[in-house]
Amino acid sequence: MKRPTFYLMLVAMIPITMILCAATLLLAAGKVGESAPTFTATASDGKTYKLADYRGKYVVLEWHNNGCPYVGKQYNSGNMQKLQKQWTSKGIVWFTILSSAPGKQGFVTASDENAYIAKMQAAPTAALLDPSGEIGHLYDAKTSPQMVVINPQGVVIYDGAIDDKPTTDLADVPGATNYVSLALEQSMAGKPVATPATRPYGCSVKYPDSSH
Amino acid sequence: MSGRKSRAAFRRAVILSAAVLAICSNRTQATGVPIPHGTLELIAEKDWITAGHPFNVALRFELEKGWHVYWVNPGDSGEPPRVTWDLPAGIKAGAIEWPAPRRLGTPTIVDYGYQDGVTLVVPMRADATLSSQNPAQISANIKVLVCREICVPGKAQVSLALPVKPQPPPANSQSTHFFTEARKAWPRPALASWKFFIVQTNDSFVLTANLGRKITDAIFFPLAESQVSNAAPQTLVPTATGFTLTLRKSEQLLKPIARLKGVLVLSGEQPYSIDVPIGKSTEASAKGSG
């Protein structure tokens, strides 16, 4: 695409995005026990991902902001990467979602994100770029690292914190109960998820100021 | 230089040094340790403590403009300051007296905290056996998250050496006004004549308050996390004798709760603590009153 056309499209998209954002806010957000709202997004790898294409698989959504100390705790300890590798190796789809608005903490371009993934040795299926906050609002994501687990039937089975230690301390990672792993293990064993919703601790998602 | 002149110069130097020392020692008393975007200081309400008597200390957070720390229930994001006390034998710390917070954040993500600073008072108890030979060394290790647009975690250690004397301390000290100010924002018990009840619908708690007068402005701050939706607007309907306030249930509230505890802030008044039993689900009547 030629650059001027691209910018024109970008400008044209702003009001559309704003309307979409307002509209999505009026809809019920993704709730535990209900169908996961569908979305289509461009990832840092340049590909387009549609949630609907992954019906039949477990999908994990991870809200990310590389400047947030709660996210730093998970990545600097290697815990998030370990989870990504552990679960994607079992055929689970893992989407890191970047809902920070341009100019705000955690906003990244595709190449920034690819460099981060390489440096941190992160292993999500894809990192979805959501600078308008549309996917974030669709799921009513409040924090990074908020985590959502969707079962193969497309139903949200977990929404909340990554674990039970709402701190920024790396030392709290080893002893923590990981709610994402617990939800996946229980669901895969055919059991109900014992803790399907928790307070998603962390940093507030840095949505655009206009997306109220 | 003549002997007289040098003696005079020496005297001046001594006086000047003493003055500087006096200023410095005052300053060390009033200066906090750095935390992200602010300072933290441990202060005592009175000049000394007495064995067998309670006393108060406080953690005084002073923050750069626009930065905040969190209430005991931080709301949608963040976390409250956490304190670990290091106390001599014979001194025990009570729980933090949390002043009523403010709603912070955006319309979709709402936090509860204190902007620009806060004084968190902690009641302490000195055993009757506490020796008055040495000052009591009171130390606290603090973990705190300081946020504005972004959040910065910090750690700090603050300490205070408090003399122990047999006679009671004077009523006032240099720090008294911080405690007086802090108390103004403490929730006090709701009046005995006030009546509260809560009925619930599928998605909301409807708090009805009978205070004997019409109330047009009230905010409820839930003490526990994950009971009330923080960002949902609290819908107030004034009545002749009070108000009803509709509080949307939190998405994370998965099991029924018997009571709702929190702080009620009526415009322009000191905040009140309330602890209200939740009535059985009466969808129809709740809809009627709300």
Q: How does this model look, in words?
A:
The complex is a heterodimer of chains A (212) and B (290). Chain A has a single domain, classed as Glutaredoxin, CATH 3.40.30.10. In chain A, 32% of the residues lie in helices and 16% in strands. Chain A is built from six helices and nine strands; from the N terminus they run H-E-E-E-H-H-E-H-E-H-E-E-E-H-E. With 290 residues, chain B is α+β, with helices and mostly antiparallel strands. Chain B folds into two domains: 155 residues, Thiol:disulfide interchange protein DsbD, N-terminal domain (Immunoglobulin-like, Sandwich); 101 residues, Sandwich (Immunoglobulin-like), CATH 2.60.40. In chain B, the strands form five sheets. A five-stranded antiparallel sheet of chain B has the order 1-2-3-9-6. In chain B, strand 18 and strand 19 form a beta hairpin. Chains A and B meet through strand 9 of A and strand 10 and strand 11 of B.
Question: Key features?
Answer:
heterodimer; A: 212 residues; alpha/beta; Glutaredoxin; 5-stranded mixed beta sheet; two-stranded antiparallel sheet; B: 290 residues; alpha+beta; 2 domains; 4-stranded mixed beta sheet; 3 helices; 15% helix; globular
